[in-house]
Amino acid sequence: MTDIPEGFKPARFDGQYLHHVGPYYTKKTDDTVLVGLPVSDHHINYVDIAHGGILTTLADVALSFQVFLIERPAPMVTTVSLTTNFLGAVKLGDFLIADGYIDRLGKRLAYTHGTIRRGDDLVMTMNGVFNVQRRSKT
User: Fold this and answer.
1) Domain residue spans in the chain?
2) What is d(CA 105, CA 36) in angstroms, rounded to the nearest whole number?
3) What per-residue confidence (pLDDT) applies to 2?
């Protein structure tokens, strides 16, 4: 089992898909909320590294979560575009940490960027555009 770094707490994400591909962890910092993922057996592909789909899912989760946190009530956030750049392989037992930042927030769209790291090693960069559907404040 992977050791969970200090300060990370189990994430409370909704949805069966995220429960299936997790478990996810979060940690608040001064400028973002980090999203962590311990790489488990069900994340590994046939060449014994983490499947690109799980890294892409982590990228989507980390970036969209930043948008979800911008206001209350929380908006519904859906992915419009996600660009990922794979920079390194990830192995069983690694703990991945994704950060995300909002570059621009409009009435309907949010533009974001972030990274995924394994310790000090950069394994992915990402950019995303998200549809933001605000809920009425009642």
Assistant:
1) 9-133
2) 24
3) 72
- Least Cα distance to 114 among 49, 67, 50, 54 occurs for 67
| Contact in structure between 130 and 108 (CB atoms under 8 Å) | no
- Cβ neighbours, 10 Å, residue 21: 19
Q: Rounded distance, CA 6 to CA 8, Å?
A: 6
Q: How far apart are CA 117 and CA 87, in angstroms?
A: 10
Determine the pLDDT at residue 109. Answer: 98
Report which residue type is found at 14. Answer: D
Task: Write the CATH number of the domain with boundaries 9-133.
Answer: 3.10.129.10
DSSP string, 20-64: HH---EEEE-SS-EEEEEE--GGGB-TTSSB-HHHHHHHHHHHHH
Over the stretch 22-60, which tens digit does the pLDDT of each residue have?
999 999 999 999 999 999 999 999 999 999 999 999 999
Q: What's the whole-model pTM score? A: 0.95
Q: How far is CA 12 from CA 16, 27, 118, 123, in A?
A: 12, 12, 22, 25
